[in-house]
Amino acid sequence: MTFTKKAAALSALLLIAGHAAAAGLTATVSNLQIQVFDLTPDDGIAASFTLVGSQIGSATTYTASGLLDSQGGLTAQASLSGTGLSALASVSGVAGSPTSFSLMASLNSALPSPYGDAGAQALAGFSVLVSPGTLILMSANTHVAVNGSDIVDNTDLMSQASLRFLQPGDGVTVGSTGTRQAFASFGAGTLTPSSSGLLSASFANYSAEATQLLARLSVSTGLATPIAAVPEPSSLALLGLSLAGLAATSRRKKGGQAQD
Fold first, then answer.
1. Vertex 219, ends 100 and 117: CA angle to 5°?
2. Which of 113, 130, 200, 251 would staple 152 via disulfide (CB 3.0–4.6 Å)?
3. What is the per-residue pLDDT across 30-57, written as a single tens digit (0 to 9) for each?
4. Domain of 124?
5. CA-CA distance, 12 to 222, in Å (whole number)?
6. Biggest alpha carbon distance in the chain?
7. CA-based angle 125:130:136, to the nearest 5?
8. 1 in any annotated domain
9. Mean pLDDT lowest for which of 8-17, 68-77, 249-258?
10. Are 68 and 85 in contact (CB under 8 A)?
11. Is the full-model pTM beyond 0.70?
12. Is residue 136 part of a domain?
């Protein structure tokens, strides 16, 4: 191997070793429950909700390099694997039973920073008709966590779970929303390593007419890394010493061949 090839190989190894991003992220939603409360008990109309649309589900995994695996339907699962990367997203449910929804997203990465972004997300939802004078409350068990070690410059990690109600036409969020996040960033360390517990979202229909809504559950995990890695000063110093050693070795070999 020539001096130039040896130097190039050593340089690549140092860059990867000095800028590897090791991370594990998870987000789950399970055990969804729906309750209704009568805001106007004297109006003679019982508080209720009715399913008026079929359940939907989608699962997607992605990377910045364009690799993509996505599926849709009530039961969906998408997975993606590559060098140093494992991502999985899944959503499952039983038709006619919105409380059976279970969502999961996970991402594990040990990638050099030039690889870019990666993530996984799962969505599920169903349409409901909420009776007049009714408060509808949906809640679910949620868990989010991030675990990052040797995170590269400017790398962000995030896991998120959320519950919300949307207007079916324009998709605008209505009522109260429940969101749980875990977040870590290079330089700031792990800000929120994990969070678990009951998450809820609600909507109060004070009108005299029934209101149709889209109930939406989602989980997502994401890793954002810089596209171009810049060597740290310690790596550059080590690289310089190594290259100097290779140059000296090369000169000695050439000198020995000349004497022969």
1. 150
2. 113
3. 999 999 999 999 988 899 999 888 788 9
4. 21-231
5. 26
6. 109
7. 75
8. no
9. 8-17
10. no
11. yes
12. yes
User: Which pair of tokens denotes residue 25?
Assistant: 């992220």
Torsion of CA 202, 208, 213, 215, to 10 degrees: 30
- Give the list of residues 6+ apart from residue 62 with CB closer than 8 angstroms, or none: 68, 80, 87, 117, 118, 119, 120
Cβ–Cβ under 8 Å, residues 160 and 144: yes
Burial 81-108 (b: 16+ CB within 10 A, else e): eeebbbbbbbbbbeeeebeebbbbbbbb
- Specify the number of domains making up the chain: 1
- Say how far residue 41 (Cα) sits from the centre of its chain: 43
pLDDT in tens, 183-210: 887 666 567 788 999 999 999 999 999 9
Q: Identify whether 192 is part of a domain.
A: yes
Tokens at 127, concatenated: 């349409």
Per the domain annotation, does 15 fall within a domain?
Answer: no
For 1-41, write each residue's pLDDT tens digit: 443 443 333 333 333 333 445 678 899 999 999 999 999 99
120 contacts 88 by C-beta, under 8 angstroms: yes
